[in-house]
């Protein structure tokens, strides 16, 4: 295990700046998610930490030692790729033990460590199979076992679950968290899936156009986004308009210049509520049923707002009906204006 520290890292590709003065700390034994839209720089940052790319400026430290010019094979990291990158002609056990053989680990120790790794990922007894005989979830476990069998200081995961279908992805999220906790390894993973980041990570960092926008525990970032981009990217968020429609009543806390409201914090009613400080008139555009939950799309003075609640708690209204949105002032999120 090791702490990873990134300080002032900049990486350019020609005229394009992929990382712009990024600084982040990844605590020893923590599970950290790098999150952002396509082109935000999250994969570039992971590759700089891994050693596949060298930064143009800044410093990367692993366990207190500068490594920004150390090649990947000498950084003591484990890497799991989106494609898994398994060797089709090798057995499961041979794939898992590949890194040990390149390090010239004695055969007896290699067999022991491969067996322990396969047991950890719950693939014991499958060591002689070839990757083509495994399911997608099993291949994912083989790739994970291969990444951790060398006892690396840091585990790096690039979109590790994106190739799996939704139900299997949820199962593997649980397994990945279990394995990370058992091993206790410092883990950094890249994902575009906000739900996955909230589920797995102890801390998250959100990047946009090569710059770090916000970092912190998932609950903290979700409940206190620094700006409208972060509020909208990490979950859904409704941004209060600068000019409120007629009939609206909003009580912004002292000093708050711009604000957002999460869809799950809103109440939707057919009648104007009288017992709340925050109300907005609107028109119901669409109701999307999703089992126990439903999403109502509401037009508020030409701006789309979303309400998420249990379907049975939402009034049964036809499209184009006049509605009212209300919420508690404690659920008003401050964001940077603009």
Short description:
With 338 residues, the chain is of the alpha+beta class. The chain contains 9 helices and 18 strands. Helix 4 packs across helix 5.
Keywords:
six-stranded mixed beta sheet; single chain; 18 strands; 338 residues; Rossmann fold; 25% helix; five-stranded antiparallel beta sheet; alpha+beta; OB fold (Dihydrolipoamide Acetyltransferase, E2P); 9 helices; 2 domains
Tell me what you see in this structure.
The model has no long low-confidence stretch (mean pLDDT 91). The protein has 9 helices and 18 strands. The protein is of the alpha+beta class and 338 residues long. The strands form 4 sheets. The chain has a 6-stranded mixed sheet, sandwiched between helices. It folds into 2 domains: 4-233, 3-Layer(aba) Sandwich (Rossmann fold), CATH 3.40.50; 244-334, RNA polymerase II/Efflux pump adaptor protein, barrel-sandwich hybrid domain (OB fold (Dihydrolipoamide Acetyltransferase, E2P)), CATH 2.40.50.100. 25% of the residues lie in helices and 32% in strands.
């Amino acid at each position: 295990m090791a702490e990873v520290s990134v300080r002032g890292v900049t990486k350019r590709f020609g005229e394009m700046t992929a990382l712009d003065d990024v600084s982040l700390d990844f605590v020893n034994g923590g599970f950290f998610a790098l999150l952002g839209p396509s082109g935000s720089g999250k994969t570039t940052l992971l590759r700089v930490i891994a050693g596949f790319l060298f930064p143009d400026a800044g410093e990367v430290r692993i366990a207190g030692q500068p490594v920004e010019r150390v090649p990947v094979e000498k950084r003591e990291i484990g890497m799991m790729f989106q494609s898994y990158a398994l060797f089709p002609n090798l057995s499961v056990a041979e794939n898992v033990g590949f890194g040990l053989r390149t390090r010239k680990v004695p055969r007896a120790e290699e067999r022991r460590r491969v067996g322990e790794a396969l047991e950890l990922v719950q693939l014991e007894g499958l060591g002689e199979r070839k990757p083509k005989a495994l399911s997608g979830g099993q291949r994912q476990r083989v790739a994970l076992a291969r990444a951790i069998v060398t006892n690396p200081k840091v585990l790096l995961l690039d979109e590790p679950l994106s190739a799996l279908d939704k139900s299997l992805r949820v199962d593997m999220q649980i397994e990945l968290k279990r394995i990370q906790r058992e091993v206790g390894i410092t883990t950094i993973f890249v994902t575009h899936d906000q739900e996955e980041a909230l589920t797995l990570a102890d801390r998250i960092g959100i990047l946009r156009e090569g710059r770090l926008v916000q970092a912190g525990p998932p609950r903290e970032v979700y409940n206190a986004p620094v700006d409208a981009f972060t509020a909208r990217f990490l979950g859904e968020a409704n941004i209060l308009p600068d000019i409120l429609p007629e009939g609206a009543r909003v009580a912004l806390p002292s000093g708050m210049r711009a604000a957002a409201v999460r869809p799950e914090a809103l109440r939707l009613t057919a009648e104007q509520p009288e017992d709340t400080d925050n109300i907005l008139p609107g028109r119901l555009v669409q109701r999307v049923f999703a089992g126990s939950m439903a999403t109502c799309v509401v037009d508020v003075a030409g701006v789309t707002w979303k309400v998420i609640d249990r379907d049975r708690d939402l009034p049964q209204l036809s499209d184009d009906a006049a509605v009212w949105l209300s919420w508690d002032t404690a659920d008003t999120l401050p964001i940077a204006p603009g």
